[in-house]
Amino acid sequence: MAHRIGYLIGSLAHDSINRVVATALVKLAPPSLEMVEIPIRDLPLYNRDDELDPVAAVTTFKHAVERAEGLLIVSPEYNRSIPGALKNAIDWGSRPWGHNSFARKPTGIIGASTGAIGTAVMQSSMRSVLSFLNAPQLNAPEAYLTYRPEMFGPDGTVEDAGTKKFLEHYMEEYAAFVERVLSLTAPGHVGDQD
Ligand SMILES: Cc1cc2nc3c(=O)[nH]c(=O)nc-3n(C[C@H](O)[C@H](O)[C@H](O)COP(=O)(O)O)c2cc1C
Questions:
Q1: Distance 182 CA to ligand 1 centre (A)
Q2: Residue 83: which pLDDT band, with cuts at 50, 70 and 90?
Q3: In this structure, how many other beta carbons lie within 10 angstroms of the beta carbon of residue 52?
Q4: What single DSSP character describes residue 185?
Q5: CA distance 89 to 193
Q6: Which residue has the least CA distance to atom 20 on ligand 1?
Q7: Is the beta carbon of 16 within 6 A of some atom in ligand 1?
Q8: CB–CB of 168/28 below 8 Å?
Q9: pTM of the prediction?
Q10: pLDDT tens digits, 101-145
Q11: Is the Cβ–Cβ distance between 139 and 131 less than 8 Å?
Q12: Which atom of ligand 1 is the closest one to the Cα of 19?
């Protein structure tokens, strides 16, 4: 059976270039992955006062993360860091203490920006956050995309041959990484930790 992968898009914009990239990645994903978006749009601002009795949007979000066997983060870089809406979602998912929904989820990080370094600084910040949350991450290939409109069609088809080959390779490597992590964290595996 295919592994359920939840993907989070770090931009709320309707014409988001990262949404275009995510759509392309869904199309290019190997059949071993079932790609499902985990929306972040309806989450309120994180408030510790509401952790134990959150609104339904928070519970829905946490359940979706927990149900996923792996996660893929597709995000822009805002002011050389993680967009606030995405960090807010991660903060909700990480709490309450002892109920971190991200633990052990094999996670890929990819992003597109209009700038030359293609979200490299956001990805570096994200790696620190996910390491703290005990989410194993695909280290290579790294994927820093400098977006050009001619790279993609509106329906997420990849028009540029080199970009298509690279993204296909990225998804194959991500799928192999998911298999590796899931086989190591299967119940009863000797290396399991609680
Ligand atoms: C608040 C804000 C901050 C931004 N900061 C960066 C940045 O640090 N680095 C970068 O490469 N692009 C930056 N950009 C430009 C984004 O790459 C560009 O807006 C991109 O389209 C955002 O992705 P999206 O279309 O998926 O929302 C910034 C844009 C906004 C709105």
A1: 33
A2: very high
A3: 8
A4: S
A5: 26
A6: 113
A7: yes
A8: yes
A9: 0.95
A10: 999 999 999 999 999 999 999 999 999 999 999 999 999 999 999
A11: no
A12: 26
Under DSSP, is residue 99 helix (H, G, I), strand (E, B) or coil? coil
Kindly report the CA angle at 100 between 79 and 139, in degrees rounded to 5? 55
Q: Measure the CA angle with vertex 127, ends 130 and 83; round to 5°.
A: 90
- Give CA–CA dist 188/178, Å, rounded: 18
Nearest 5 degrees, angle CA 24-CA 57-CA 131? 60
> Is the minimum distance from the CB of 14 to ligand 1 under 6 angstroms?
no
25 C-alpha to center of ligand 1: Å? Answer: 20
Structure tokens at 5: 């992968």
What are the helix (H) ranges across the chain? 17-28, 56-67, 84-94, 120-132, 161-184
pLDDT in tens, 11-32: 999 999 999 999 999 999 999 9
Residue pair 86/75 in contact (Cβ under 8 Å)? The answer is yes
Question: With bands split at pLDDT 50, 70 and 90, how would you rate the model's confidence at 185?
Answer: confident
Cis ω on the peptide bond leading into residue 154 (within 30° of 0)?
no
- The structure tokens listed for 140 are 């290579």
The phi, psi pair for 184, rounded to 5°, reads -80, -25
- Cα separation, 179 vs 186, in Å, equals 10
Cα–ligand 1 centroid distance for 81 (angstroms) = 10
